[in-house]
Amino acid sequence: MMNENEILELAGTEGFRAALTVPQNVPVNGKFRVYCEENRCGKYGTNYSCPPDCGPVESLHQKLLAEDRVLVVQTIWDIAGYKDKETVQHAKMEHNKAVLRLLAKMKEKGLTGFCSGYNGCPLCDPCRRVLNQPCLHPEQRISCMSAYCIDVQRLAEDCGMEFAWAEDKLYLFGIIAFHEENSRSCCSGKVEQVWNVDPARTALIIIDMEKAFVEPEGGHCIAMAKATVPACNRAAEEARAAGIPVFWVKRIYRQDGSDVEFTRYPVWDAAGRPLGPDSTGANSIEEPEGLVRRPEDYVIIKPRWSAFFQTELDLILRRKHIDTVILTGTTTPNCVRTTCYDAIALDYKTVILEQCCSSNTQEIQQANMEDMERVGAVIVRDWPEPSKKAAGGGGCISESAESMQ
């Protein structure tokens, strides 16, 4: 593990002045999102890293709070005034590229996370959002500080870093929020170990990742769901590559609401009756942008919270000789949790991919992960990078306990 001085020295190799803090000390103020909504950088609605595609402020803040530490970085540029737009734009672009390089260096040292900079992601020109195509780099794209609503001036002051609005100087900041790779699960801090699964006996289950649950305008929107789309899509891609079947579990209500839970009916009716077969837009049953379902994948329609309750899921899994399920999707306290408990009750080895699951708050997420771990589920942070897989283990993922042996 790198110590504080080593992390700061590594930041210096990219020309940064840097300081370390914790996520709870990063000042967030929702008023800064207006800078994005006013489209001051010209990327609103045209770049996957920018609003509204990057998700609401609440989900981005919860993403930040889920990390262990935050590296605050700064570059200072000579400019001929803010009207020198070409120089200012070049500085911001180079600043972002340096942040991404530093994030890659930290990953090589065993520290993984995400970063934020200025003016949106610079990786593709134009962004695939403009072309209505999936993002090419969902794990690398960099949202700006305004999208995260970070009060940069306060952050700089709290970290003892220089901040000023000057005619001849441009002060640029960024953050890298990170944790030590393979060092913990979200709830117990157990050391993650390599677990070799048999792809022929394992299934990936993606629960309720539909627009009505994921999109900010959706009738049943879960605050943190939008931010999990890239991780869920990567898990699906990695599963298929390993020969692991992918199951999409969806909620589809009758248009007249005759099959809606009586506890949910008033909310469902008031929200415009989402998740019907004819629902459109943000209330539809479609997968959100960036989440791709393939023709070879399975689709299971469930009438209640659990993916097993009155569905053919258990029948198909047993017919395919599956004994291990990997759970992802939303919401963690409801549909993921009930599916987890039913899976364990049916004697399936059960794994939860933490960064592929979502709740309305980090506190809810944490408490439910802890509860599921206590009953025997294995909580892992994310599907591992291909380079982290054990030699010859096409179906390797990381495990946080030895309970799967």
Summarize the helices and strands and which ones pair or pack.
Elements: H1 4-12, E1 17-21, H2 33-37, H3 57-65, E2 69-78, H4 85-108, E3 111-117, E4 143-144, H5 152-158, E5 169-180, E6 193-196, E7 202-207, H6 211-214, H7 229-241, E8 246-250, H8 265-270, E9 298-301, H9 313-319, E10 324-330, H10 332-345, E11 349-358, H11 362-374, E12 378-380, E13 396-399
Parallel strand pairs: 3-4, 7-8, 7-10, 8-9, 10-11, 11-12
Antiparallel strand pairs: 1-2, 2-5, 3-5, 6-13
Description:
By secondary structure, the chain is an alpha/beta fold. It has 11 helices and 13 strands. The protein has a 6-stranded parallel beta sheet with strand order 9-8-7-10-11-12, sandwiched between helices. It has a 5-stranded mixed beta sheet with strand order 1-2-5-3-4, sandwiched between helices. Helix 10 (332-345) packs parallel to helix 11. The longest helix has 24 residues, at 85-108. It is globular and about 70 Å long. Mean pLDDT is 84; it is low at 183-195 and 386-405.
List keywords for this structure.
single chain, 405 residues, alpha/beta, five-stranded mixed β-sheet, 11 helices, globular
Oligomer: single chain
Proportion of beta-strand residues: 15-25%
For the secondary structure, the number of strands is: 13
Q: Averaged pLDDT, please?
A: 84
Helix content: 25-40%
Shape: globular
What is the overall number of helices?
11
Give, in order, the helices and strands.
HEHHEHEEHEEEHHEHEHEHEHEE
Residue ranges: pLDDT <50 for 5 or more in a row?
A: 183-195, 386-405
Which class of secondary structure composition applies to the elements? alpha/beta
Q: Rg from C-alpha positions?
A: 22 Å
Measured distance between first and last alpha carbons: 27 Å
Biggest β-sheet strands, sense, barrel: 6 strands, parallel
How do the strands of the widest beta sheet line up side by side? 9-8-7-10-11-12
